Amino acid sequence: MTEAADEAARRLCYVEVELLTQQEALARQRVDVASIFAEHHIGLVRLALIMLGDQASAEDVVQEAFARTHAGRGRLRDADKALAYVRSAVLNGCRSVLRRRATAFRRAVPYEPPVWSAESAAMLGEERREVLLALRELPRRQREALTLRYYFDLTDQEVADTMRISAGTARSTIARGLAALGRALGEES
Amino acid sequence: MNHSPTEDRLREALTEAGATLDPSTLRPLRAPERRFRLNHRLLIAVAAVVLAGTATAVGLGGPGEVDYAVATNPESLPPEETDLAIFLCTESVQKDPCQGRAADPEQTRTIEETIRRSPDVEVMTFESDEAAYGRFRQEYAENKALLAAVKPTDILPSFRVKVHEGTDLRQTVGPLHALPGVAKLSEPARLYDLPAMNEKTQRISVFICVDGSAMPACGAQRTSGSVTKEGKAATKAQKEAVEQMIAQMPEVESFFFEDQEAAYRNFLSSYKSNRTLVEATEVEDMPESFRLTMRATADRSRVVSDLKRQPGVAQVVDHACTREQIALERYGLDLPAAEACSKGP
Asked: Chain B: nearest CA to A166, how far in angstroms?
């Protein structure tokens, strides 16, 4: 039906207008984005889970990012960067949730579970919990860069693409984050 | 390379944190419903480029005749007040979604009830194919060639709807689009209002190939609905050759070149109220074109066919033909451009 309507659109305006056909190409790329979401669904939810600490919010964030991309609001030209693009969309979603939570806490209305709530953290060992709590205290950029590097094993360039920063900034952010984490955990570097 | 203890601890903690997720408990991703929204957007974009006018929504179908079991208001809405026409499938509509099957009485009733249920609908009438054909013959009485080209069975019966002022038609149309028995949708009232529809100047737009084009004329290859190889942009020499050719055509009164930036500015000024469309469209989505104003009595078809053959030209649009085609959309007709155009003034 979509194709049929597109066909009608073409006819309506005297065969294909350049713009329409380009939009079609974009629409096809969006389909690819959708398949990337499907393929990496679990990994993306895990990324959000590490950022947010609870599965329900993590799933919501991924679903929301998926819906946005699917609705065509997300733009994608370079198919090679598709995974960086969807991870980036998920990170953005996590930032929004964390901002909302911060606001809620300032108003002393803790209606959402804090990052790594007692319930979620109970599933982790003491040692792991300590590291995650220290990670959580880091500035947002460092926290994200460290997660992308040490959970997904991304290269500097891939971290940079996902966070929409330069590779140099990614490298220095990771180094600073790691040093800060070491200090927080009482380790000598 | 040695890892620091911090790196190792972090890696392990993250792995364990990630592993707390049980994949079997994940809710599946849900695709949002967006079909109509997207099409509408495409249509708007196309109309913007060709006519710098506003949008229209159409479906697809073909000609046919059908028996109905519908009792509605016997007086049909005049086209200029018909916000939405819902054309029904007939046996002669071979393409999707009809595939040669006429809307049966039950489907027709469902369509009617869906329309009636919508709180947006102010008036609903039904126009039979015979009545619509009569109206068509009257409007185009002087255009013998067009009358000869359109058979009575080409015209479809339709439910015709006027909505309350301020209604977002996309909301109204959403549930109708997918109903079995619906051949296509059209917005006749809006078609009457398009400023470009009332334009008297004879204009032709010559679109130039840009990189990534899907047009076969630019070297693109495609199957139905998908591009297997993208086209190339016109070279500087090709553009200059096109310009020179236009400059030497006696039929052309005046012309100018519209680059992507200029096209984008025009697009923004026409669509500033449509944020979604503006956000989804970038400068490089815009085409490059030569815009020709033709002398009143010029033979446009020769100009069109000569320019079409020129390397680096993606397509040539005769605005008069487009207007004629759009006008025919009010009857649910989608004639090929050549057929609609050869009859025009």
From this structure: 22
